[in-house]
Amino acid sequence: MTRILKVGAAQLGPIQRDDNRKEIVERLIALLHKGSAVSCDLVVFPELALTTFFPRWWSEDISDFDHFFETEMPNPEVQPLFDEAKKLGVSFHLGYAEMTSDGHRYNTAILASKNGDILGKYRKVHLPGHEENEPWRTFQHLERYYFEPGNELKVFGAFDGVLGMAICNDRRWPETYRVLGLQGCELALIGYNTPVHYPPDPSQDVLAGFHNHLVMQSGAYQNGMWVVGVAKAGNEEGCDLLGESSIIAPSGEIVAQCSTVEDELVSAVVDLDMCANYKETLFDFDRYRRPEVYKSITSQVGVEIPEGIEVRKEDDENPEG
Ligand code: CDT
Questions:
Q1: Which positions are annotated as active-site residues?
Q2: Which pLDDT score is estimated for 2?
């Protein structure tokens, strides 16, 4: 049996604060059509694909930004995307801000089937940035203010294989891929909004593209899974967001990559059986993993240097300053 599907990485260009939901959904539908025209079975949209990346702004009253959240999925504004996907017979992945009926806010992604049924929902586990107003920043990154973290990295059955989802900052953590990999994940879908400028350490800015691919390619290779990383890109409200959306094979190689920072779809044939090349050889977990040696990974959060190791800090050399 071959398990082959065509996947489209549907990168979005910027969404500005006042862009209306109807026009944004029309952009998504246009990308869905591009995917369908090249026979995609699955089209992957980015993180927070229905709004601008609003956590860049502080608001004293958190509910000022409630209009950026979806209280149901689908809802009347997003229904045309579900209808079109069903008509075209294309499955899709969509990131959005979720508000539950009891008032909890999450950075969420869903996977919808070719029939428009929601097959899976994922809430972002690793929330980056800060909780408080930090006006010194050129722009803020207040995900820890606007969202609560999700508590589960799980997989879903689709396309006769095992699919997983992660969102943006999750992709920088090897634990994300490994926890998915331990559940047999063969295809991880990851949307992102990554500002090119990182205010706490601007020396990282020139490395933004390198780091993006570094983490996803490593995650793919070390777990023998396909990874589809999809950006919301371009200049959003004065903030440059990284593009370079890509489809990465279990070998760690990039097989398709966007070249603009606008709405753009690239696609690739994804053979889920290729995962076995890695899962059953170098990364045969059953045979080679040593969980008894990795206990600190789940028992410990921060760094704990073992007693007896002296570390000299720069300040120690010249305590007078
Ligand atoms: N959206 C998101 O998670 N972006 C982060 C920015 C990190 S800097 C606070 C990312 O990891 O790309």
A1: 47, 124, 168
A2: 79
- For atom 9 of ligand 1, the residue with the nearest CA is 129
Band (pLDDT 50/70/90 cuts) for residue 321 is very low
Q: What is the 3-state secondary structure (H, E, C) of 91-109?
A: EEEEEEEEECCCCCEEEEE
Does ligand 1 lie within 6 Å of residue 250's CB atom?
no
Backbone angles phi, psi at 300, to 5 degrees: -130, 140
pLDDT digits (tens, 9 = 90+) for 229-255: 999 999 999 999 999 999 999 999 999
Protein residue whose Cα sits closest to atom 12 of ligand 1: 194
Q: How far apart are CA 259 and CA 38, in angstroms?
A: 18
Rounded to the nearest integer, the mean pLDDT of the chain is: 97
Ligand 1 atom with minimal separation from the 47 CA: 1
Contacts of 293 (CB under 8 A, 6+ apart): none
What tokens does 301 get? 């959060």
How close is the Cα of 169 to the center of ligand 1, in Å?
A: 5
pTM for this one? 0.96
Ligand 1 atom nearest the C-alpha of 242 is 12
What is the residue-wise DSSP string for 35-79? Answer: HHHTT-SEEE--TTTTS--GGGS--SSGGGGGGGSBSSSS-TTTH
Hey, what's the torsion of the CAs at 46, 49, 51, 57, to 10 degrees?
-20
